[in-house]
Design brief:
7-stranded mixed beta sheet, COMT-like, transferase, O-methyltransferase C-terminal domain-containing protein, alpha/beta, disordered N terminus, Rossmann fold, single chain
Length: 241
């Protein structure tokens, strides 16, 4: 039995793995839940959704520590949309460090319903696959590894549209895993590859190396990027149109 993605959903992998490999479901979770996706499942139960949001909030405290080394990434930005920003814990940390920044958290309506912002923080219900509000920069923290390449390209294309008003001045900020077996210590590579298995079996997502990230960026219409190891086993990527 395994517990995954910090939510209290138990999947008996021994009973479902064989059925999954011989079936048509994209993930083991879909097989275990009767063809229902992980996201559909947690959004049907407020307790599961609350637990997931709490896990993401705890993870956001890493941002407070990392800001000491990557403040320049956010300096000079007038407005930022945090795509999939959940209940706004990352937003509050960044807004505290940059009080002049206009910060918008975009997430599904059921996630942001009832949440109140502040002078420079607001919450918007929406869908990143349909559209993203216009801003100087877009933040994708711990988002893209949840999705297939095709879905990531759709999200990134919408990000590019959202910053198009800034021309070359806009950018997308990505916080995610970058697999680098040539430079990482063996234990770090093991962690990243384990996460890759978790993403594949639970969400049809994946962890990517730099070559795979670059392919996504080019297919979404971006021209250049920079990668900074700054968040333990995750990295910060600046992506430019």
């Amino acid at each position: 039995m395994v517990r995954f993605l910090n939510t209290p959903i138990l999947v008996d992998s021994h009973n479902h793995l064989g059925k999954w490999t011989s079936g048509e479901d994209l993930t083991v979770v879909e097989t275990a839940l009767g063809h229902e996706s992980y996201w559909d499942f947690i959004h049907q139960d407020s307790a599961y959704l609350s637990t997931f949001n709490e896990a993401m909030e705890s993870d956001s405290h890493v941002v407070r520590l990392a800001l000491r080394d990557c403040r320049s990434v956010f300096e000079g930005i007038g407005s930022l949309v945090d795509v999939g920003g959940g209940t706004g814990n990352t937003a509050k940390i960044i807004c505290e460090a940059f009080p002049e920044l206009k910060y918008i958290v975009l997430d599904l309506p059921q996630v942001v319903s009832g949440l109140s912002g502040s002078n420079n923080l607001s919450f918007v219900g929406g869908n990143m696959f349909k559209s993203i509000p216009q801003a100087d920069a877009i933040l994708l923290k711990w988002v893209l590894h949840n999705w297939s390449d095709d879905d990531c390209i759709k999200i990134l294309k919408n990000c590019k549209k959202a910053i198009s008003g800034k021309g070359k001045g806009g950018k997308v900020i990505i916080i995610d895993v970058v697999i680098n077996e040539n430079q990482d210590e063996h234990e770090m590579t093991e962690v990243k590859l384990l996460l890759d298995v978790v993403m594949m079996t639970s969400l049809n997502g994946k962890e990517r190396n730099e070559k795979e990230w670059k392919q996504l960026f080019l297919q979404a219409g971006f021209k250049s990027y920079k990668i900074f190891p700054a968040f333990g086993f995750r990295s910060l990527i600046e992506l430019y149109p």
